């Protein structure tokens, strides 16, 4: 409204409020026209203010419905809760995932095809919760995820060194490595359990495709 009055003053060369009153008193402007202009202006301001408030509330509601965190996970309807990735299936960005609410550890994120996840949901469906990857956060923060997989192979000299060198050539950090012998159909084979830090499923798939090309590698278990 103040801006409207200033516009009237400027348009009619009125320097101050006293001159404005005099201007009205001289009836050089009809008071009813001025009042109507003020009403229209106030209604516009009120409409704009209401719209802004609605937009703010809408954004707050959307944020409440999609709780976000630094793990790259969006959780349906929950903010600031404890999240952990299931060790049984170690989900990576790119995997289809599901969440399960636990009594002590908050929300555990599993791969959708994880047998343990299916068993828990079947036992208590009320604890399943919708979760998804926050693609924007994953791209901007460049998070790396701890991931463990097992290579099944025929033992031979230097095979472990070849695997380690291959992973290093992919610029992937190894956090632990353990190997042990097992029997399969009466024959001895080796299993190598490796933990790495990796960005997502696409990087993992590329790495595994190259590992499977190595001589004496039988399979890779995730």
From TrEMBL:
Domain ACT: from-to ranges: 148-222
Superkingdom classification of source: Bacteria
InterPro entries, alphabetized: ACT-like_dom_sf, ACT_dom
Stated name of the protein: ACT domain protein
Species per Swiss-Prot/TrEMBL record: Fusobacterium periodonticum ATCC 33693
